[in-house]
Design brief:
Layout (H helix, E strand, L loop, with lengths): L2 H17 L21 E9 L2 E11 L2 E9 L4 E9 L6 E15 L1 H9 L13 E15 L4 E24 L2 E26 L2
Length: 203
């Protein structure tokens, strides 16, 4: 058979071989999809004492550490708060250790307290007209929920409150009244603290 006839006879076989789809080799498994990185940013809402109501952002640079910061309100004034929470592992229930620091700006507490309790003694009222406080707290707690989506927390611990006040104080006796001007009267106290809230991870 001439060469041209052999080529013509082999052409249909070659075209049929090209039309057959190439199946992946069993020795070459498909690559596994890359795991998605866990979210690191979220929103936190918490309520407690002496914290008040706190709304802020949560940032998780590592899976075992979460930082938070936001604005606070205690029905008497406004402040700011920041903190850090250690999470040794992640399950449906996770133990936590939290440290927080907050500051409430000076405000007229006397006028607000009088709405609930009635008139305050004029001898001490000036000391409450310009007062704020700083607090530090350490808390042990539990978190419930999904570590990468939504968690609810409940914490108990101890808080240290530091405050100062200034103003005139009037002392009244049978012989008359005397007014003293007090400057920078400082007070501190250790009180139990409780805190509950939640974190929603968004990004």
């Amino acid at each position: 058979m001439p060469l041209s006839r052999r080529a013509a006879a082999a052409l249909p076989l070659a075209l049929a071989a090209l039309a057959v789809p190439q199946l992946p080799s069993a020795a070459e498994p498909e690559a596994a999809p890359a795991a998605e990185a866990p979210p690191i940013l979220g929103v936190q809402l918490a309520f407690g004492a002496p914290d008040g109501l706190v709304l802020g952002a949560a940032y998780r640079p590592w899976t075992f550490l979460r930082l938070n910061g936001g604005v606070a309100w205690n029905a008497l004034g406004f402040g700011v708060q920041g903190g850090a929470t250690l999470l040794p592992f992640h399950f449906g229930i996770t133990p936590t250790l939290t440290g927080e620091v907050g500051y409430y700006f000076p405000a007229d507490y006397a006028s607000r307290i009088e709405r609930w309790t009635g008139p305050i003694s004029p001898e001490v009222r000036p000391l409450l007209e310009h007062i704020g406080y700083t607090y530090l707290s350490t808390q042990l707690g539990l978190e419930f929920g999904g570590a990468d989506s939504f968690v609810f927390f409940l914490r108990f611990g101890l808080a240290w409150i530091f405050t100062s006040a200034s103003g005139p104080v009037t002392s009244t006796s049978d012989s008359g009244s005397t007014t003293y001007v007090l400057q920078g009267v400082e007070a501190r106290a250790a009180v139990p603290t409780v805190n509950l809230g939640f974190v929603v991870y968004l990004w």
